[in-house]
Each structure stands twice: as C-alpha cells, then as structure tokens.
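Two quick folds needed for the group meeting slides. Do the first one here.
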Amino acid sequence: MSHLAEFTIEKHHDAEGARVGMWLFLFTELLLFGGMFLLYSVYFSKHPQEFRYASGELNQFVGAMNTIILLTSSLTMALSIAFLQKANRKMAVTFLLITMALGVFFLVNKYFEWGVKISHGLYPNSPELLRHSQGEILFYSLYFVMTGLHGLHVLIGLVIIGFMVYFISKKSNMTVNLKPTVLENLSGRRLSLSDDAGNRIWESDVIGQDVTDVKLAVKGKVSDAESLRANAIKLDNVGLYWHLVDIIWIFLFPLFYLIAM
C-alpha cells in the first residue's frame, strides 16, 4: 500500500487587486475614446448641417442591429460569469461561445457596411470624398477612425474570450516546490495537495523529481473549487472589458447614425 504525503498549497487569488488593475486599464481606454468624442463635438459644432447630411447616408437599420447584437452579448457575458460563479463550467463556456458568435456577427455587419461606403468611394482621402464639403470629409474620417478603433477592441475582446473558453475547459498541470528534506523521503509515495482552507484539491502519484532544483513535478486535474476561483476572477475582468466595448458603441451609435433624424 502506498503512503500518502500531505502538503498544503496556499493560493491567494487577489480579486480586488485584479479588479483595480482592470479599472485602471479601462480608465485609459475611456481617456482615448473620450478625446475622440471631444474632437467629434468640436467638429460637429462647426459643421452641424454637413454632419447631419452625411449621417443620413449611413444605414440606420444596420447600426441599430449592431447595437442590439452588442447589448445581447453583454447579457450573455453576464450569464457566463454567473454560471461560472455557480461552478457550472458547461453553461459558462456555452454563453461565452454565444458571446463570441455575437461579436463575430457584429464585425461581419461592420465589414459589409464599410464595404458599401468604400465601394462608393467614401473613405478617408479618397478622390470621391475629397470632392465633398469639409464637414462631410471630417464626418467620414471620424466615422472610419472611431468605428474602426472600436472594431479592433471587439476583435481583441473575442481573442481574450477565446482564451477564457480554453482556460475554463482545460485540465490543469501543477509544479510544486518542496524542501529537500521532504524530497528525500518522498520516493514511491502518493502526493495529496490541499488549499489553505484545508480542502483537498489534488491527488496523484509522483511522476518525477529533481532534488538539485528542489522541484517536484506532478500532473493531474486541479479540483473545480480551486480552478474556478482563479478563472472566475479572470472572467469577471474580461466581462468588464467587454461591457466597456458595448458602452462605447452605445455612444457611437447616436453620434453617427441618429443625428440626421
């Protein structure tokens, strides 16, 4: 019968620290888009009629559809976070995949919308656009820059969500550092790992050890309780980023699509 070696791993997931760091990052994003909104307001005050005319050339239906898509994606992101907090990995991943599908749908709509304008020669520094009034040139320049930057943020969000799907779904490997005196008597034993609350989170046979590096390599599946705590913190921050992306679009939609109404 193999002996059981008990060890305790202390893992403190700093949820507050991670959240503060994310809010600081989001603040820099707000400064970036806030500066663009300010620039838009200055140019709009100088060319209100041209801005309204150019806005009327955009497809309000597509803009409204994209708004509904992103608002729905915020809902599915919130549901994914809620299910992960309830230790339901399957539903959390399902709603993350739905969120990704909605984000892709948004980008596809934007691609075709841009394609129509580009096919008509209405893009920054195009010969066709340069024949229009100064206000229209400024409007379309801001339109492509601001919606393009927002689309880039959506794309980045989709990549991050994809990583979260992987993290939540995957089995984990662990490397544990132990003292040499422990390693001397560990050969042929079975290793059990517990968290700082005393809950057993992992158990496996020793598959290798290196006394020189004072490192014990173990492999196995970390319990749901341990991995869920870490992933819940990550997903909560990803959710904050995704909600910011949606909020920015809520401001972009009326500025570019509704001022002609």
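Then this one, please, same format:
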Amino acid sequence: MRTKVTLISLLVIATAVFTPLPTQSQVMKKKFTTNGKSDLPISTLWRKPTDIARRDLFYGAGGKQHLPGQRLTFVKEDKGGSNPKFEVKDENGVTWKVKLGLEAQSETAATRLVWAVGYFTDEDYYFPEIQVSGLKKLSRSAGLVGVDGSVSKARLERVYDDTQSTPWSWFDNPFARAKEMNGLKVLMALINNWDLKAVNNKLVMRGGAEPQFIVSDLGATFGKTGDHLVRSRNNVVDFVTSKFIKKVSPEEVDFVLHSRPHPFLFFKLPYYIERTRMERIAKDIPRTDAKWIGDLLNDLSDQQLSDAFRAAGYSASDVRALTGKIKSRIIELNRL
C-alpha cells in the first residue's frame, strides 16, 4: 500500500515539474478573450487619428504640457536591460525613467512616428544634458554621467502611478490578424526595429482607464537589422542604406527585418528559435493593410517628420537624411 501511494505521489510531482507553466501572453489572452474572440475593442491597440496633419511630433504623445520639470532628484538605479537606466523625480512629484546610451535618441524619435498614426507609446523626451541632484554612482553610466550630477544624452520616460502591465506577443494576441496589428508590424519594419521580443511589449492598465497595447521598447531602431554581428541601432548611415521591401506578391508583401542569430549561436537553441521566429513578423503582410498604414503616414508633412528627429537631438544633416529615408519608404508603401 505504501509503495502504491509513493508511486502516485511521484507521478503527481513529476506532472507538476514537467507540465509547462502558462506564458504571460497565454494568461493575457485568456483574461481578455471569450470563446476565442477578443473582449477588448480595437481602440485598445489603435485609435483613428483625425488630426494627423496637425500632430506635434516634436513633443510627441505627452505633448508640451507633460515636459519633465527642471529640478530632478535621483531615486534609484534600474539595472535591467542592456542600457544604463535610473529613476528620478521632478519638482512636480512625477517619476521619470532615464535611459542613456545609443537608444536614447532612436527611441525618442521612434515613439513619435508610431504615435503619429494612432498607436499608443510611452511619453518620451530627449535632453542633450540634464542635472540630477543626489545622483549616486551607477554600475553603468556609458561615460555620460559627471561627478557634479550632470547627465548627457538622456531620454526621460514618464512613469505613471497606479499602473499594471503584462507582456504581449506578436504571435499570440487578440488582434493578431487585424489590419491595425499588421499596420503596427509595418511600422516596425519602417523604423528597422530588430528587437521584437514579447518582453518589449506591454499591455498597460492605468487605474480604471481602458487598457493599451504598447510597444514599450523602441530603442533598437534606425540602424541595420540582422544577426548580432552586423545589426545596429541609431546608426544613420546603416539606416539610410538599408532595404525596406523584400518581396511583393499579388496579395502580400514581405519586409526586410532580419533578426536570426549567427549560426554559431545555434547551441543556444531557445534564443535561436525566438530570434528566427521574429523574422516572420514582417512577412506575409496583406498588401491592402500595408497600403492602409502607408496612406496614414502619407498625411505627415516633411516638417512633422523632421520634428520627430529634431526632438531626439539629431544634427541638422542627420535630420535631413533620416527624414528623407522615411519619406522614401512611405512612397514605397503607397506604390503597393
């Protein structure tokens, strides 16, 4: 009898150990779907912008009214991710996450382009230099932090109180086949975003407000897509010389969005599979959906496009080059 009970116990334990736990995206999908259909309206992903031609791409989603205050006080370091980050609080009691390094500029510009055509983004602002009181020594600083509390080339992202978030996947979400999701995928190809992991997306819930699907990390943009040996971010030359559309068929279009690791990393099988899968995000996009997002982007003026890059602190020559490249890609979309 004891042997039988022991065997049953071992089977129960083995089942518990080897049964995979549900992923965050699976939990999210179950929470917001009924009988396989989304309980969330498309407005949680995209809202029709009736004012595209008037949108202020210099200040972006937060607008001028949400600019950070001038007196910033150090709160704590954030050691997550690959870029130096820390939190500060301004004189208005608002908390901001400061990001340093290459992604500070590219992320600031990217949020403006994505927000301009109706998608949700973080509220980001770029500053060539800020002053932070009480700044402690950081484990990572990228050589951009002075002993006097001065910080160079900083992106400040507003942190809202009473906020919950969960990751969402490009392949497993309530709007996977909607034109609005396909439009967002085209935008990722437009800005050469090669870091499309689910952990970089978040479904945000603030208080009792309607949830919002956000691509929350747009730093790996405006460079070259590819494996870790050749890809880049915030590299103007790489971006302006890169190709946008890979293949066009009567019904679909494939965009250039390389993410597969170098073959010698095949021994890291989960990583290799994830990166290889990410390349599919910009493939088999219906031409009608690509043309739809192209029509929205076509309503943006050259001045608005330039403002997005000026807001990120790019030089005048880089602003012209980046604006010209984005404009040419919009033309490619509208020729589909």
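Slide caption for protein two: The longest helix spans residues 316-334.
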